[in-house]
Amino acid sequence: MALKQQRCNRYEGKWVYDESYPLFDSSKCPSIRGEFNCLKYGRSDHHYLKFDGLDFLRRMKGKKIMFIGDSVSENHFQSLVCLLNQVGAPSKVVNTINNSTSTTHGVSISVFLSHYLVDIVNEKIGRVLKLDSIKDGDTWKQADVLIFNTWLWWYRKGPKQPWDYIENDGKIMKDMDRMDAFRKGLTTWKKWADSNLNPSKTRVFFQGISPSHYKGEEWNKAGVKDCSKETTPLNGSTYPAGEPLASKVLKSVISSKTSTPIHLLDITTLSQLRKDGHPSKYNALGGMDCTHWCLAGVPDTWNHLLYAELMN
After folding, report:
1. Sheet holding 64-69, edge to edge
2. What is the pLDDT of residue 1?
3. Which of 70, 119, 226, 289 is catalytic?
4. Across 89-220, where does the E strand assignment appear?
5. What share of the chain is helix, strand, coil (3-state, %, to 5)?
6. Model confidence over 109-152: pLDDT tens digits?
7. Residue 144 to residues 140, 148, 196, 202: CA-CA distances in angstroms?
8. What are phi and psi of 56, to 5 degrees?
9. Distance CA 115, CA 65 (A)
10. Domain Trichome birefringence-like C-terminal spans what residues (predicted)?
11. Is 100 part of the annotated catalytic residue set?
12. CA-CA distance, 49 to 284, in Å (whole number)?
């Protein structure tokens, strides 16, 4: 009787200690933002910290890789640049208003800042978040590998919210259900990908939801309000709070029928288990950061998975 071969799921499992980590010395990677450089700002434990960089460069020679999204995309981008620096691949970094590009060994790696992927347009009434519009796509189409991400800014309100009105299906309003807005923005992005990308030339990835750790009850520590005293991963392979709703919405949108294959980098659960991986108070801004990730650290594993998918 023939047995059906099961495909390995790289995204499921538990964290184990590996003495060969960290994969790079953050003090020797000058491109790291101060918010991500935990060792420089006083973190003493190293446990939060194999990537074949030379093989990556050889396989990707002549290619353009672009991360598109918010500061979590920059976290991901800087991890990859530092991993390649570690194998003796010096890079030239060029910064523009919303773009940073690192070029090494004929491989261009860039990050494009786009908090929502859809547009924010200045109009007479104010700044309008347009859920049906993407105008930055011509820049994105120039890359051979695209890694998209959005989520962090969708629930921002008050002074830190970068828009005044939201437009959906031609109707302008002060606000709407944020999860519905997130779903609509993702749907607009997916339609853009289907209409504008050639799957024979461009590999498209969407990074799963990157979790924050401000609610201790989510990992069975009632009363804990941040990640400041967390120094070890959660045991096991499941997160007590389960999968976030945003992750379910993302999966439902990108798994629907499409002419452009979209590969999910399903980093959510493995990152949920790493409550210890955030800068906490050890960062250049001095506040409590349980949203971004230390470098070296968890985003290096995201890049291991990206590398595996690219080689697949």
Report:
1. 92-95, 99-104, 107-113, 64-69, 145-148, 203-207, 262-265
2. 38
3. 289
4. 92-95, 99-104, 107-113, 119-123, 126-130, 145-148, 165-168, 171-173, 203-207
5. 25, 20, 55
6. 999 999 999 999 999 999 999 999 999 999 999 999 999 999 99
7. 9, 13, 13, 5
8. -60, -50
9. 18
10. 50-308
11. no
12. 19
Entry field: residues in the chain = 312
pLDDT in tens, 201-229: 999 999 999 999 999 999 999 999 999 99
Question: 111-129 burial by CB neighbour count: b if 16+ within 10 A, else e?
Answer: bbbbbbbbbbeeeeeeebb
Residue 166, pLDDT score: 98
Choose, from 71, 108, 114, 271, the residue flagged as catalytic.
Answer: 71
**SS (HEC) of 206-233:** EECCCCCCCCHHHHCCCCCCCCCCCCCC
Angle at 165 between CA 189 and CA 291, to 5 degrees: 60
Q: Which two tokens stand for residue 275?
A: 């409550």
Q: Which of 145, 150, 4 is CA-nearest to residue 63?
A: 145
What number of H helices and E strands is found in the chain? Answer: 7, 11
Kind and range of the H or E run holding 253: helix 245-254
Residue tagged active-site, from 76, 105, 278, 292: 292
**Active site annotation includes 45:** no
What's the pLDDT tens digit per position in 5-64?
A: 456 777 778 767 666 665 556 555 665 665 555 656 565 554 433 678 888 999 999 999
For this structure, is 71 an active site residue? yes
